[in-house]
Specification:
heterodimer, A: alpha+beta, six-stranded antiparallel β-barrel, six-stranded antiparallel beta barrel, 12 strands, disordered C terminus, B: mainly alpha, globular
Chain lengths: 354, 170
């Protein structure tokens, strides 16, 4: 042992102090254990029920949003000042380029107008009903998390503005993400770069559809059917929402392809996740259909003999369990090619029953 | 805590002194949400580093249950599944305290290496916990964030020492 402490003379008090210290240490260890156990229980609960603490999250968003708006203002001012100085130096060249672009764009716009009239006429002939996009609220993005695991931002519109979870959020330059948590006056959106973000898109030039997958870093992956031909996607191709799945309205610009060397081509979001600015919250483009309860299932012998089982893409909630089992054994051909192509992207709309 | 002999009224600094560690972690959590234009899009995990540093500089002022509360706030603010930061922050505090009760000599390099190992383990655990709660994320950006966090350690130590000198040692 090392040297004894200075107050060695008072024997009984020292031992009582020592006992108290060891008791305190034991108490501290027990307390730490309890704290860690509580945290692990919270984790377990969030695995069992990911929506737990929804109200708490909302209340926290309400509390934090004004604070973050204050920190946001100077950063935004610096960003704007930087871009303003940059603009100032290139004003003449920019002006010339813009005038050339404008001439080209006017010609194209005239052509597009004529085409739009024709499309409307043809749609009238077909009696096609196009769902409308509905604006729910406009909001300012006040914060975005610099967290590698979860990419989210906070906007200053919430339940009181009609914002609900899953609504698409669109910025001036393109799609920003979707709403995940909602408070009274603020809500959190999942950005395109989040590892759990999936957006059904198509290549504007060719019309090929695919899925834009967030990676957790600043780029996105464009996962698409390899049969479409990977060699014919070019750097600079623009990706717009396809409207599959019914959440995002179609033809909203999302990203631009920046790298075709990798196996899924890489794309960059058009709306910069750190400088979103003002965004629009829209209602889900095609809200999920209200399913009518299925009629009571007939006896099993009838089912396997007579009825062709529903298509594989039908959501399992609508199929009673008694006819779900024969689906795999009988293996009927997929009812229509349309349902087959829509199957990977369609998550919320049911294909028509045949 | 300690009032100056000239005035009987404690100043604001003296009043909030015991809360300085927790307040600094809270501010760091909010700072993580500030929209900063960054190349990799990641900010060093300053809340975790501050918890590590305060656990050794002022252990009584940042007990494990305070770290639990701060972790819950961090989870709610950043939107990660509830329980990840709520576990990692108190676990880091407890780990630092256990290590300090066993070792005597202290050196900058060993402290930094110890903090680096805790940060790396915490990020790996956080990655596994994200997958456990059904929000799997790729490892690359998370490890980039861990590397940035390890690099930021000396700055955070300097900040904490300065805060302690200003508020806690009167």
């Amino acid at each position: 042992m090392s040297r004894p402490p200075a107050s060695r003379g008072r024997e009984p008090r020292r031992t009582s102090f020592a006992r108290r210290d060891s008791n305190l240490a034991l108490l501290g260890a027990v307390l730490s254990g309890v704290v860690l156990a509580v945290a692990l229980f919270l984790l377990l609960f969030s695995r069992i029920n990911p929506d737990q603490g929804e109200r708490l999250r909302g209340a926290m968003l309400d509390a934090v949003s004004p604070l973050l708006a204050v920190t946001h203002a100077p950063l935004e001012a610096i960003r704007r000042l930087g871009s303003a100085i940059g603009d100032h130096w290139q004003v003449v060249e920019k002006n010339r380029a813009l005038e050339a672009n404008l001439k080209l764009a006017t010609q194209r716009a005239n052509k597009a107008e004529a085409l739009a009239v024709e499309v409307r006429r043809l749609e009238d002939l077909l009696k096609l009903r196009r769902p409308e996009r509905r604006l729910v609220a406009s909001a300012v993005v006040s914060a975005s998390a610099g967290n590698a695991g979860v990419r989210s931002a906070i906007i200053n519109a919430g339940l009181s503005d009609g914002v609900k979870p899953r609504m698409p959020v669109i910025a001036a330059q393109g799609l920003a993400g979707r709403v995940t948590d909602v408070g009274q006056h603020a809500s959190r959106i999942m950005l395109l770069t989040d590892a759990n973000s999936r957006v059904p898109v198509k290549v504007l030039r060719t019309g090929w559809t695919g899925m834009l997958v967030g990676t957790g870093s600043t780029t996105l992956e464009f996962a698409f059917d390899i049969a479409s031909g990977i060699d014919r996607i070019r750097v600079g191709d623009r990706l717009v929402t396809s409207g599959d799945g019914g959440l995002f309205p179609p033809n909203v610009p999302v990203a631009v392809v920046t790298d075709v060397g990798h196996e899924p081509p890489r794309a960059r979001p058009l709306a910069n996740p750190t400088g979103l600015g003002v965004v629009m919250v829209e209602a889900p483009w095609l809200p999920p259909p209200a399913f009518v309860p299925a009629p009571p299932a007939p006896s099993e012998a009838d089912v396997s003999a007579v009825s062709p089982a529903p298509s594989a893409a039908a959501p399992p909630a609508t199929a009673p369990s008694s006819i779900a089992a024969p689906t795999t054994t009988a293996a009927p051909p997929t009812p229509s090619p349309a349902a087959r192509t829509a199957a990977p992207a369609t998550t919320r709309t049911a294909p028509p029953r045949t | 805590m300690t009032s100056s002999p000239l005035s009987s009224q404690p100043t604001l600094g003296e009043r909030i002194a015991p809360a300085i560690p927790a307040l600094s972690v809270l501010l760091a959590i909010l700072l993580l949400m500030a929209p900063m234009p960054l190349a990799w899009g990641v900010i060093p995990q300053i809340p975790l580093l501050l918890c590590l540093v305060w656990a050794s500089l002022a252990p009584r002022l940042l007990p494990a249950y305070a770290a639990l509360l701060l972790g819950i706030i961090a989870d709610l603010v950043t939107g990660v599944p509830l329980g990840i930061n709520a576990f990692l922050l108190p676990a880091a505090v407890v780990a630092v305290r256990m290590a300090e009760s066993r070792t005597e000599a202290r050196h900058l390099a060993t402290d930094w290496a110890f903090a680096a190992s805790i940060v790396a383990v915490a990020n790996l655990l956080g990655w596994q916990m994200l997958a456990f709660t059904g929000q799997p994320a790729p490892l690359g950006p998370i490890m980039a964030q861990a590397a940035l966090t390890i690099l930021a350690w000396p700055l955070v130590v300097r900040l904490a020492v300065r805060l302690r000198r200003r508020f806690l040692e009167v």
